[in-house]
Design brief:
Layout lengths: L2 H12 L5 H9 L21 H17 L2 H5 L7 H10 L8 E10 L2 E10 L8 H8 L7 H8 L10 H10 L1 H17 L4
Antiparallel strand pairs: 1-2
Helix pairs in contact: 1-3, 1-5, 3-5, 3-9, 5-7, 7-9, 8-9
């Protein structure tokens, strides 16, 4: 099964709220490169379809994390399937249409060749997590916890003040869970080119 097919299957199975179909239509349209884009310029998922692959990996990592008895019983994290799918699959939609293919010279087997690489060129520099929330919101209403989870999914690795991240993790536990799943996918699951 292709990554696009897997993404759409998870999305359509669980995300049912008003506007979900229209947002998926946007993701599948020629206005979006979501299903062909890399997840980064040179780190995790830095190849075609890396973004959709990363999004699916985060979904599976989040599902697994939230299924732990300790997480449910001690931390009280109990979220429905729609919320889990929405925050995991859509946390990085801010990366749509920002990676451009360029070429550079690289020595391959002793010979110089033109090889493709990705450059980051964001024509709407609205931040990272906040940009994803901004892009989703015209289509679908997010709960406060979903919005905070997506907004702060980078955790302490973003440029946000540490006390804002700490406050968010304490008051919106889904943000901590999504950040954990995102890091797990980034460092242990996603491929590298």
């Amino acid at each position: 099964m292709s990554k696009k097919t897997e993404f759409i299957e998870i999305y359509q199975t669980y995300i049912k709220r008003d506007g979900a179909k229209e947002f998926l239509d946007y993701l599948c349209s020629n206005k979006s490169d979501f299903f062909t884009a890399p997840a980064s310029t040179r780190f995790h998922g830095s190849y075609p379809e890396g973004l959709v692959e990363h999004s699916i990996n985060v979904y599976h990592c989040l599902k697994d994390y939230l299924s732990r008895n300790r997480v449910k019983d001690m931390y009280g994290m109990d979220y429905d399937d729609e919320t889990i799918a929405l925050v995991a699959l859509l946390h990085d939609v801010c990366k749509i249409n920002v990676y451009k293919t360029s070429y550079r010279n690289k020595k391959v087997n002793g010979e110089w060749q033109q090889v493709p690489y990705y450059e980051f060129e964001d024509e709407m520099p609205y931040g990272h997590g906040e940009k994803s929330v901004y892009m989703i919101s015209p289509f679908m209403k997010l709960t406060r916890e979903e919005a905070f989870a997506i907004r702060y999914h980078m955790g302490f690795s973003n440029e946000d003040p540490a006390r804002n991240v700490g406050y968010t993790f304490e008051h919106f536990p889904l943000a901590f869970a999504l950040s954990t799943a995102d890091m797990e996918a980034t460092y242990f699951v996603d491929g590298k080119e």
